[in-house]
Design goal:
It comes from Virgibacillus necropolis. Homodimer. Forms a membrane-associated complex with FtsX. The chain starts with a strand and ends in a 9-residue tail after the last strand. 32% of the residues lie in helices and 26% in strands. Helix 3 runs parallel beside helix 5 and helix 5 packs parallel to helix 6. The chain has a domain of 107 residues: Rossmann fold. It is built from 7 helices and 10 strands. It binds adenosine-5'-diphosphate (ADP) (2 copies).
Length: 228
């Protein structure tokens, strides 16, 4: 369902972040992307939601060639791919409810359906009682759960998370992982770039290691493999 063919990325400053990536990820897989800082992990995930375009090579998601998508169609792609960031990226002046409703394709949805869908995802992440709160009234873990709810409210087939536990304490990080496992159990593909050794070595999944813009390891139920 996700396929990268000979993908290279050189940024405009001349830095080459990816150096020939070939990968296939199937529907429903859970993949950790690991590697040292600067290895190219963020670039790898940004290519998948077309925040970044490859300098060379092709990327297909569900049979769609990302390079064939016109700029104005990118928002539609984003509806089929949920993205979660280390720093949450919630809109600070909107409530929890509004942050999630905002991500919905609201045009044809009745207010009743919007409310049902938002409350359903808030229930899934355990935050139904915080719908009226503003982001800064929530803990970091709660904010990350709101951002997960926002990412999945359109029922994407793929969820991409870039260091989702990077700003969270260990207990909260494990709670977030439970939410990801639940989403994955419902058939959603999850790709998570992470530096969290304990999580990778405990919740065993496919591990893809990137170093200097190349895949150096790809293991089913792999290990983190680095000291930090
Ligand atoms: P990682 O997520 O593994 O730390 P990145 O993909 O962020 O790696 O970075 C890979 C390389 O590309 C690094 O050398 C980084 O400095 C560089 N890089 C990342 N983003 C940009 C950018 N927007 N412009 C120029 N260089 C970048
Ligand atoms: P129920 O239908 O279960 O009684 P409520 O109407 O009390 O639910 O709403 C549940 C939560 O969702 C409440 O916290 C409410 O503030 C929030 N909520 C519902 N609709 C909106 C909205 N349009 N904007 C912001 N928050 C909303």
């Amino acid at each position: 369902m996700i396929k990268m063919n000979d993908v290279y990325k050189t940024y405009s400053n001349g830095v080459t972040a990816l150096n020939g990536i070939n990968i296939e990820i199937g529907q429903g897989e859970f993949v950790y992307l690991v590697g040292p800082s600067g290895a190219g992990k963020s670039t790898f995930v940004k290519l998948m939601y077309r925040e970044v375009k490859p300098s060379r090579g092709t990327i297909h998601i569900n049979e769609t060639d990302l390079s064939s998508i016109k700029e104005k169609r990118v928002p539609y792609l984003r509806r089929n791919i949920g993205v979660i960031f280390q720093d949450f990226k919630l809109l600070p002046k909107l409530t929890v409810f509004e942050n999630i409703a905002f991500a919905l394709e609201v045009i044809q949805e009745s207010p009743r359906n919007i409310k049902k869908r938002v409350m359903d995802v808030l229930d899934l992440v355990g935050l139904k009682n915080k719908a009226r709160f503003l982001p800064d009234e929530l803990s970091g873990g709660e904010q990350q759960r709101v951002s997960i709810a926002r990412a999945i409210v359109n029922h994407p087939k793929v969820v991409i998370a870039d260091e989702p536990t990077g700003n969270l304490d260990p207990d909260t990080s494990w709670e977030i992982m439970r939410v990801f496992e639940e989403i994955n159990a419902r058939g959603t593909t999850i790709i998570m770039a992470t530096h969290n050794k304990e999580i990778v070595n405990t919740i065993k999944k496919r591990v893809i290691a990137v170093e200097d813009g190349l895949i150096v390891r790809d293991e089913h139920r792999g290990e983190y493999g680095y000291d930090i």
